[in-house]
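> example.struct
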């Protein structure tokens, strides 16, 4: 074959490959900008690229800002190919508005009904159609601690009760480190409150608020005790806390400047990015005692409405590569979360992930995260109430009144 023909064929092939890659161009809006998050999202991008696609990364710092950007693009008529939301009701209005494509084809082909936990299916499946691809299970109420700080403070065992936890915070304070690293932003303050509601108030009280909107339960002594315990944490937080980003708080524990952080297991991605190992430089526990509740949260990608066949093909390829077993392990290992599917080889995942995977086998310990149970509007109102209570000297009685008024609305 002549050199000229060989060259023509090679050029032809290159063009075809470029055309395919271009056809599978996918712009993805997400809010994963921290060190650990960036390393994790790259695993999704690499898997998509390996499958022949072109990943166009549109990172927007901060969940609220990223979700708003995605919705503005959808409403403005220039939607991205995919956008990140939490596994929740956050995108249900967009579904109601007919502004999302479903991924039924991928879901049925991959047997999601069998593969995915009920709490996740309930969030992504609306009127029998699948409107989002889940990529992980995050638990927002883990305890991350510095092993050196615990050792220096003379804390031998992980706290098994709220009282033991406060005793540990006292020891950390006495040893001269910041006992509790907290980022003073409304969503983090709400997350900390919800962690105490589940771990101190218990799963029933948690569900009475978020599932049942039970005013009597909110007016109970048990609920007041949760509010008082929440406010008591303030005595263990440093003056630099206001407006601190969550990953900067994690960095304090990584550096041993702080003893503990209450945060979702996305924090683990930061420890890993700092080359720290679970069980060695840092420890993790998902709550107090062997039967602590496990709040199910996480991330999904939705696919804005389009009739463009190539864009739909890209959306389906994204949904397929993001949920593939190998991608699930590679991504979740860096993200700090655990895979959405139980049929993956999770042996490479660390001790914290193994704990989470075990708990996911016990439905009696699982709690839907608040945003799976209440509307984004009520979530916003409750977040405002919690952040006001945390940042002012409002009494717990007044906070109770505000919450009762909000859930009655
Ligand atoms: C959560 C999200 C996590 C993590 C965190 C901090 O909403 O589910 O994946 O990224 O925000 O940005």
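> example.seq
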């Amino acid at each position: 074959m002549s050199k000229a023909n060989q060259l023509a064929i090679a050029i032809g092939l290159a063009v075809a490959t470029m055309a395919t890659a271009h056809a599978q161009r996918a712009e993805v809006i997400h809010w994963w900008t921290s060190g650990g998050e960036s390393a994790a999202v790259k695993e999704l991008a690499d898997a998509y690229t390996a499958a022949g696609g072109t990943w166009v990364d549109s990172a927007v710092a901060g969940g609220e800002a990223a979700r708003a950007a995605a919705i503005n693009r959808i409403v403005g008529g220039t939607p991205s190919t995919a956008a990140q939301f939490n596994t929740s009701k956050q995108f249900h209005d967009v579904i109601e508005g007919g502004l999302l494509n479903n991924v039924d084809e991928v879901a049925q082909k991959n047997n999601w009904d069998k593969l995915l936990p009920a709490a996740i299916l309930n969030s992504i499946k609306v009127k029998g159609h699948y409107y989002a691809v889940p990529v992980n299970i995050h638990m927002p109420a883990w305890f991350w601690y510095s092993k050196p700080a615990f050792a220096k403070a003379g804390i031998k065992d992980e706290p098994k009760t709220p009282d033991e936890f406060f005793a540990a915070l006292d020891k950390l304070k006495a040893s001269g480190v910041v006992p509790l690293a907290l980022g003073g932003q409304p969503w983090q303050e709400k997350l900390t409150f919800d962690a105490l509601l589940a771990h101190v108030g218990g799963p029933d009280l948690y569900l009475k608020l978020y599932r049942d909107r039970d005013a009597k339960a909110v007016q109970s002594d048990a609920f007041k005790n949760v509010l008082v315990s929440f406010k008591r944490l303030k005595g263990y937080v440093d003056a630099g806390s206001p407006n601190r980003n969550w990953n900067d708080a994690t960095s304090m524990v990584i550096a041993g400047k702080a003893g503990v952080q209450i945060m979702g297991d996305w924090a683990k991605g930061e420890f890993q990015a700092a080359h720290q190992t679970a069980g060695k430089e840092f420890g993790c526990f998902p709550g107090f005692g062997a039967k602590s509740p496990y709040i199910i949260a996480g991330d999904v990608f939705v696919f804005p409405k389009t009739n463009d066949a190539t864009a739909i093909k890209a959306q389906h390829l994204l949904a397929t590569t993001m949920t593939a077993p190998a991608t699930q392990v590679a991504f979740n290992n860096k993200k700090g979360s655990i895979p959405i599917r139980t049929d993956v080889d999770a042996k490479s995942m660390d001790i914290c992930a193994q704990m989470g995977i075990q708990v996911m086998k016990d439905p009696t310990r699982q709690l839907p995260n608040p945003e799976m149970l209440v509307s984004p509007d009520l979530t916003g109102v409750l977040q405002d109430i919690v952040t006001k209570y945390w940042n002012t000297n409002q009494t717990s009685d007044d906070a109770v009144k505000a919450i009762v008024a909000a859930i009655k609305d």
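> remarks
The first strand starts at residue 25 and ends at 30.
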